[in-house]
Design a protein that fits this description.
With 313 residues, the chain is α/β, with parallel strands linked by helices. It has two domains: 145 residues, 3-Layer(aba) Sandwich (Rossmann fold); 159 residues, Rossmann fold. Helix content is 41%, strand content 18%. The longest helix has 28 residues.
Amino acid sequence: MTHYRNLIVAIDPNEEDQAALRRAVYLVRRNGGKIKAFLPIYDFSYEVTSLLSQDERMAMRQSAIDQRVAWIRQLSHYYIESGVEIEIKVVWHKRYHEAVIEEVIDCDHDLLLKAAHQQDRLEAVIFTPVDWHLLRKCPCPVWIVKDQPWPEHGKALVAVNLSSEEDFHDELNEKLVKESLKLAAFADSTEVQLVSAYPSTSINIAIELPEFDPTVYNNAIRGQFLVSMKALRQKHGIPEERTHVEKGMPEDVIPAVAESIDAGIVVLGTMGRTGISAAFIGNTTERVIGHLKCDLLAIKPDDTDSDEHDDED
């Protein structure tokens, strides 16, 4: 993560406490770099006031922007005074997520941080439509931040796909592990662990093929996953006790392991897509995300134009 030095924080317009900004400051203080505190705002009533001239409407719009800039500056003053480089930018835009993505592209930001919504610290994170748009379409990694301090000697759980022989999955696994190890190198001795879920035998197969032995099949599949996990962990110097190969669906296994080891963050891959298929980041990935109770770092492959891979991530 040493290259994550041009951070953008999507400011929550309804909160005085900005968890994503705190996390960005934490990263910059340990890794260097700069932060942009970014907020898109829009008020339709400013556009339809027929009694006002265009200049008057523009002046009202600018006044609203200036007020928000002053508000963010007040929220950030302690960080700025301590030496953290924070640029504050408020824009007038109808669509929050589109404005954020345009800013990421225009300014080549390498990490987007946004606060999660949650009803309770122990409950799963609630993902809003804006969150989903950003996860699906933002070209840089997206860090969804839960409102809790980064734990000292915490754990980053990396979800890897060991079920496919496709090269793009292997390349994404490599990227996820490398990015997580870079994060761990400066984030208070964070420990990296790996997890992968393997499928259980289909009941239909056992019924249709009486001679089929599901135990032999399950052991064979588990064996393949363990071999692949061993190769991956050894390549990156990760001890065996920090790897998890569990039977079940990824959306069940990954959140359960994350909770059992008290992970501070889950790192997973989302297949980058453009055009119509940008509406999807993979059925498996979406189901996993919906069950998490900790921070999430979603990373796309280096080649984000992956329309040809419309299967699950």
